[in-house]
Amino acid sequence: MQRILFLFLIFAISQLSIFGEEKSNIPSPPKEGYYIITYKNYSVNLEIDANGYEVKGGSSNEDSSGQADINYWILPANNKIKIRVTERKGKQKENGSLPQEAEVKLALGQRGQFPDEGLLLKQFQWPKETKVNLGEWTELEFDPPFLPPSQLWKQAEIITLSKEKESSAIEFANEFTKILNTKDSKKILSMIQFRAQDTSEVRFYPYVEADEIKSITEMTKAIGSTWKLDKKKIKFTLLCNDQILNVSDPKGEPIITSKKGASIPLYLSWIGGKWVIVR
């Protein structure tokens, strides 16, 4: 009896060892990489929004496909991707030669990979798998397997919009425009220092101040002192759990533009009692 019990214990231990080996062979989730949205739409229009950031607008009546790196907009938890498929109007609706369909994928890719080689996190296929009516929003929620390195979410306060906050944001934009027109690379860098450092971190690139200065110097030589701030109609949009404020025109376009055709989007956070350019 004791020998039988001994053999049973040996068998049990060996099975646990085998299962342990099998479990250890299961690949662990990546600890770094790029959150990438890929999309395509035929004979319908497609809108995509990631935590409030517009990845793709829905006004174009053309078939399209593309991709967007959204590491900048990934939150520590409760991320939301909103998708809407809408019908085309007029001649574009009549001339659609392909079946109406749209697809959106969220993948986690590594450097050197194509987007379709990454780890698929979420998928939207209309109308094949996603049964929603045209014009209705679909929301995909996910918690990231890892958070891209960033100091922003630890420091940015929740923004509550008020007339005072909006006015101070416009004053900041005005001051930033004046600094741009000085063509002083160091002063300009001081205004975008947080953005330059944090976005380098988020995309796993080392921040080199000399390279930033060089890039700004080249920009000022090309554009000169032609930056203008359009204050006529301004739209304030909160995104990323109300930790970022986008200051734009009513169409979502930048309000800081140059005569050379360049423009600068304005994504601000409230950090340490003042506005800071963060994206």
Structural notes for this entry:
Strand 2 and strand 3 form a beta hairpin. The relative contact order is 0.13. The strands form 4 sheets. The chain has a 4-stranded antiparallel sheet with strand order 4-1-6-7, with no helix packed on it. It folds into 2 domains: 34-142; 153-277, Nuclear Transport Factor 2, Chain: A (Roll). The longest helix is centred in the N-terminal third of the chain and has 23 residues, at 2-24. Residues 1-24 have low confidence and may be disordered. Helix 5 (185-202) packs across helix 6 (209-223). It is built from 6 helices and 15 strands. Helix content is 30%, strand content 30%. It has helices at residues 2-24, 90-94, 152-155, 163-182, 185-202, 209-223, and strands at 34-42, 45-50, 53-56, 64-69, 79-86, 101-109, 119-126, 137-142, 227-229, 235-239, 244-248, 256-258, 263-264, 266-271, 274-277. By secondary structure, the protein is of the alpha+beta class.
